[in-house]
Amino acid sequence: GDHVYKMDYGPLLAWHSENEADMTVCCMPVPIEEAAGQLGVMTVDEQGRVLRFDEKPEKPTPIPGEDGLCLASMGNYVFNTDFLYEQVIKDADTPDSDHDFGKNIIPSIIDKYRVFAYPFRDPETGEQAYWRDVGTLDAYWEANMELIGVHPQLNLYDSDWPIFTDQIQLPPAKFVFDYPGRRGEAFESMVSAGSIISGASVRRSLIFSNCRIHSFALIEDSVVLPDSDIGRHAKIRNAIIDRGSRIPEGMEIGYDHEADRARGFRVTEKGRTLVTPDALGQDLHFTR
Fold first, then answer.
1. What is the rounded CA–CA span in Å between residue 158 and residue 45?
2. Which of 22, 36, 226, 267 is an S-S bond match for 208, by CB 3.0 to 4.6 Å?
3. What DSSP element (H or E) covers 244?
4. Strand 218-220 to strand 235-237: parallel, antiparallel, or no bridges (unpaired)?
5. Could you give the angle at the alpha carbon of 221 between the alpha carbons of 193 and 175, nearest 5°?
6. CA distance 169 to 206
7. How far apart are the C-alpha atoms of 110 and 191, rounded to whole Å?
8. Are 239 and 274 in contact (CB under 8 A)?
9. Which residues lie across from 53 on neighbouring strands?
10. Is 3-133 assigned to CATH 3.30.450.20?
11. Cβ contact 275:253 at 8 Å
12. Domain residue ranges of the chain, discontinuous segments joined by +
């Protein structure tokens, strides 16, 4: 999936049960311009029952009394098991279906069954809870950048909400060299285990695991994915460096978009540059 969110499923399941729903769709208010062409949009009654569902409309229906906002599907659903099985089989037997939940299944069941919208909020404050759609490069970059804030909404250091994942065992990040112009340093950044900042400067960036940032390099406002190697004197800003990329010595990325495109790099609408091993003409030497 391409969503990142922080949810306790208990209240969601309770909502589904209390409403005797056949299906429940998690939702939240989203600016219309962000939802247009990107997210499923719903219309609901006062009890939260879904009256209409449009998959990625170009002109989303606004929430009554909330100009500028629409009720968007988060892409998270709860089904009664037998009901889900029945609807998937029925859809599979429909020749002209695209076999898509948002486009086909949900619109087909709204009038016949109990479909409810679950308003996703922080259970303690009642305010909008953390959820990000990272389906575009810009959204992915922005979601990563939020993590380095002083008080991010998704706090990776919150011991009351640990995030369990499969991590390989690596040594701590290391910073080496302390000479004028050649100092291993990082400011307003996150540097993951196994990475070495060797006489380079990292600012407002995320360095994932097992990366090597060599002397005199400068990385600003960027996301550097695992196993990447940044050569000496390289300068990178507003970029996403894909896993396993080896940036040549002295290369500048994010300073001249036309030059970036000429190298085969992708530049987003908001001016972020994506660099991949393929674009660099490199083979990956690890198993994805």
1. 37
2. 226
3. none
4. parallel
5. 35
6. 19
7. 47
8. yes
9. 42
10. no
11. yes
12. 3-133, 174-275
